[in-house]
Amino acid sequence: MVADAADGWFARNTSHWDDWSLDELVAAKGSQRVSLVVPARNEAGTVGDVVTRVREALVDTVALVDEVVVIDSDSTDATYDVASDAGAVVHRSAEVRPDLGSRPGKGEAMWKSLFVTSGDVLVFMDADLTEWDTHFVPGLLGPLLTRPDVALVKGFYERPGAAGPYDGGRVTELVARPLIALEHPELAGLVQPLAGEWAVRRSLFEALSVPVGYAVELAALIDTAASLGVDAIAQVDLGRRDHSHQALLDLGAMATQILAAMASRRATPAGFETVAARPPQPAGSVSRGEVVLRQYQPGPGGITPVDREVLTFERPPARSVA
Ligand SMILES: O=c1ccn([C@@H]2O[C@H](COP(=O)(O)OP(=O)(O)O[C@H]3O[C@H](CO)[C@@H](O)[C@H](O)[C@H]3O)[C@@H](O)[C@H]2O)c(=O)[nH]1
Ligand SMILES: O=C(O)[C@H](O)COP(=O)(O)O
């Protein structure tokens, strides 16, 4: 039954990036504006390439992307200057709407982007890409610009170096996919639910509660399916993609954030009304907005506990913020 539903969704909503020509997409775009948003924390080595290549291919040569915006997420390296020199509009996450305060995290950077971009459609792309191409952006725009019923588009790709070409990463396979199997089988047709390359209509993203950390992707999928139905989500095969990989213990923090966002949604099922009503700090054991993740490392006196504060705080829907 679940398999049939996932197969049906997959057949209806899966495309390949070259299913549309650039000319078709520019025509379908019409008067809508498109913003590319790149959240970046300490990505001075790669963010320049991402910005330069997208700008040359999709801003200067064809008018598909109207602005390339990098949200510098508390970087301590030269990310701001490199992105700026490459031609992006760069904002420091902490300096966007300072009246709203600042939290560390990728989701925070993406939420803050809503206050400094003008796109009717936002395309998100990671800044740490090492193998990728500019067709990622038109690929993600294809379903959004040609299907009014679609509000969110996820990328998926072949991952060189992974055990199997379509394996997700470690958190995808060990946390996200099992959670989907247990609690959100309606999302089982997504090949890479945690992909950082995705596109969304502003009207949807500004109506969603946004976890400040790495749970932003899974939360957006769950809340979109709950609010608009799973057929408002589509996915696109983007070809090959590689990126820099985090250490296992850092991924423990990512997994904790994802599990916390799921727990919060279990307590308050999503839907536009309930999403809007959900307090920024969810009820239950994660209500403090952060949890302590104890991990162990070798130390001078033997095995040493290391406590890591993991932020599970969520931002309310941006449209509810004055
Ligand atoms: O506090 C942060 C942390 C990361 N990033 C940026 O977010 C992007 C992705 O971060 P990364 O640490 O490379 O994530 P991954 O380990 O690759 O995690 C995968 O899975 C995550 C959970 O769904 C997604 O958010 C990521 O986009 C996806 O690539 C990069 O541009 C980072 O610079 C920020 O802007 N702020
Ligand atoms: O997407 C994921 O599951 C995490 O980002 C980890 O990916 P990796 O195992 O490829 O580093």
TrEMBL record:
<keyword id="KW-0460">Magnesium</keyword>
<comment type="similarity">
    <text>Belongs to the glycosyltransferase 2 family.</text>
</comment>
<feature type="domain" description="Glycosyltransferase 2-like">
    <location>
        <begin position="35"/>
        <end position="157"/>
    </location>
</feature>
<dbReference type="InterPro" id="IPR001173">
    <property type="entry name" value="Glyco_trans_2-like"/>
</dbReference>
<protein>
    <recommendedName>
        <fullName>Glucosyl-3-phosphoglycerate synthase</fullName>
        <ecNumber>2.4.1.266</ecNumber>
    </recommendedName>
</protein>
<dbReference type="InterPro" id="IPR050256">
    <property type="entry name" value="Glycosyltransferase_2"/>
</dbReference>
<dbReference type="InterPro" id="IPR029044">
    <property type="entry name" value="Nucleotide-diphossugar_trans"/>
</dbReference>
<keyword id="KW-0808">Transferase</keyword>
<dbReference type="GO" id="GO:0016757">
    <property type="term" value="F:glycosyltransferase activity"/>
</dbReference>
<dbReference type="Pfam" id="PF00535">
    <property type="entry name" value="Glycos_transf_2"/>
</dbReference>
<keyword id="KW-0328">Glycosyltransferase</keyword>
